[in-house]
TrEMBL record:
The lineage of its organism: Eukaryota, Metazoa, Ecdysozoa, Arthropoda, Chelicerata. Residues 1-20 form the signal peptide. The keyword Signal applies. Keywords: Signal. It comes from the Eukaryota. InterPro entries: NAD(P)-bd_dom_sf (IPR036291), SDR_fam (IPR002347). This is Uncharacterized protein. Belongs to the short-chain dehydrogenases/reductases (SDR) family. PANTHER family: EG:BACR7A4.14 PROTEIN-RELATED, ZGC:101858. Pfam families: adh_short.
Amino acid sequence: MPVCDNKAVLLCGLVCIVSADYPIEDYKAVAKSRDFTGSVVVVTGSSSGIGEGIVKLFSILGANVVVTGTTATKVQRVAKEVQELSPLKLKPLEVVGDLTKTSDINILIDSTVKTFGKIDVLVNNAGIYKLANITSPDLLLVWDQIFAVNLRDVVELIHRSVPHLEKTNGTIIDISSVSAIAPVKMFGPALPAAKAGINMLTEILALELGPK
């Protein structure tokens, strides 16, 4: 199972520039050379920001998409816009939940498979940022919160998704950060450490899952 196939390579390159307000015309220009019609794409944290941009791009490229987030009104707004952008006006699946909860991860994966019958692409985008330096009284609380959302739920999502992705020779895309490879004092220790974990996790899984 490829961690990033030929179609997804372009998307990996675009991750740095897509956002909720990225020009739709540029998305549509990409659609002329990439076709994801028939594919099922799950994008976590897609009710705003980079995730919203990614899920809109996949919709323009013809995919059936899953819009996820913690706030129902935001998920509903993005889902409506996503359907309008879809060439076939495909209705996205809306899933509201907290990915730090195993029960909500199970709902996300199970409802996707129940609705669309498969998963072709999993984009692990959901993340949070809170600042706490090494001397902050709440350092360990912030550390646990950031690792729960930015790393642990990625591991659990992949763990639950792999049986479905193996059936479709699917793709996993993990969203990292420049802070994972270049120390930036303003981010504090927790976020860079979690994102560095994402980078190594992705490399290890490329070795483990790539040959399948």
